[in-house]
Each structure stands twice: as structure tokens, then as C-alpha cells.
Amino acid sequence: MRTAHTITDLRKALQPLRRDGRRVGLVPTMGALHDGHWSLVEQARRSCETVVASIFVNPLQFSPGEDYEAYPRVLDDDVAGCAQRGCDVVFAPAPGEMYPSPPLARVAVRGLSERLCGRTRTGHFDGVATVVAKLFNVVQPDAAYFGEKDYQQLVVIRRMVRDLNMPIDVVSCPTVRDPDGMALSSRNAYLDADQRSHARLISAALYEAVESVRSGERDGRRVLAEAGRRLAADPVLQVEYVEIVHPKTLEPVARIDHPARLCVAARVDAVRLIDNMLLDPTERAE
Ligand code: PAF
Description:
Helix content is 36%, strand content 19%. The protein has 286 residues and is α/β, with parallel strands linked by helices. The radius of gyration is 19 Å and the shape is globular. It starts with a strand and ends in a 7-residue tail after the last strand. The relative contact order is 0.13. Pantoate (PAF) binds at residues 28-30, 58, 61, 128, 131-132, 150, 153.
């Protein structure tokens, strides 16, 4: 496996690996890699001969006061993990390599970026779309792999690729969860055991909503009220939003007659967590 820190080195490393129509898969990450990321690498390996993982904590997607400085950086461990899981190349640029000067050209996926997390994280999805577009231009992958855990990000990137005619398959991969139901996230590392016991109520509320739709509930307001009640009952969790949205437009959905996404953002003290699950009215309880 090769590790490239510059765009020139990455292009050199990829040149021979692209020959004979070999498919290149990209797994974009910010590092602190966990089983959720490894599932993306695994998925990429199944359909691509060459797998590139990028590791870059993108300053553009953090607002002032967010955790850019504190974000976990464990590059040596990440690179070793990538080698072990069969990545061919790791691209780990420094901020100055990706942004030699403040970028004047940026990508904005309007509307979708302003919903859900976009209401409080102003500019976040413009930062994500811009860096992902740059990574796509630099790596030129045939396919790119994203987790459903960051559902809004996935929808924004799919729309960017469609609107800008980028010749890339965006592949979504299911959220990987701990045995207690919590979605894996690099930010879980910020939680101590007590905080975690509050955080896991988020997935518990989501599972309960999924079950209620499986049992025949179709009224979105009732599902939301129940999930909201459960989360609000916890003295530590501070709910930012609980919403049922259309899976592509992210617009609120009142009746669950078609598959929809239940999305939650909440804080446990200073740690902001997000999670979501599919509400599928075509699935029936046994
Ligand atoms: O999901 C992430 O880790 C980041 O938002 C991404 C897609 C790597 C862009 O920085």
C-alpha cells in the first residue's frame, strides 16, 4: 500500500493502478477510522480493483467554535488499518495541499444543505460538497462510498454528482452499530460511560419508531411525538431536531405511506450526535 501526502504523488501512485479499465473506488474519510469506515472499504473492495481511502480533516466544513482542532487525529493507526484491510492507496494531504489559498470556487447544493443539520451548521454542507468535489477531481474514482449514518451528507453528495454530471457511482452503505444500538461515529470517542448511557437513547427512540411503523402506524406526527417524548424525558440529552423526511428531498413528511427517514440530532453535553433510520411502511411486523 502507498501513502500519498500530495496530489502529485497520489496521481503518480494511481496511474499504474488504473490501467486495463480497473475500477477505482474512493472512501473519503476524516480519519479516526472505525468499523463503520472499514465496512465502506470492504464494500469498495467487492466492486473495485483499486481502493483509495482519503484521510483529511476538512477545515471548510467546521464552523468557528466547532471541534476542528479537537477532532481525533490518529494517522499512523489509520494508515496501518487501511493496509490491513486491503486499501491500495491512502491519500492524507495537509490542509495546505488541499487549500493552498482560501478557495474562491465552492460547491453549494442549495435547499438540501439548509435542511436538518444545515439549520444550525451554516455552511457545513457547502464545505463537505466542496471537499468531496475536490477529492473526486483529484482521485477520479469510478465509485465513492458513503455511510447512511450521515444521511443528509449522502443526499447532498448524490445531488451534487447528478447536477454536475460527475461520472461517479455514489454507493451508500448501511450504518454500523455497536451492540447497544449506537451508531459508530468518530465523535463517540468524546463520550465517557455516563454520557454514552444517555447517547444510546437516540438509537433506542429510532428503533421504537421503526417498530411502530412496522406495526402499522402511518401518522408521522404520532411517531414524532413519541420519539420526541422519549428523548425529552432524558435530563441530559438536548434535542436539536427530530424529523421525518422524504428520502431524496429531505422535506418533512406527515404520513408514512412511502419509505421515509427519521432523523435526529441531539447533544450530550458538548458532544453533538446524529442518527437516522428508515421508516418503511412496506415492512410488516412478524
Ligand atoms: O463524512 C466525512 O467523514 C466527511 O464529511 C467527508 C465526506 C470525508 C468530507 O470531509
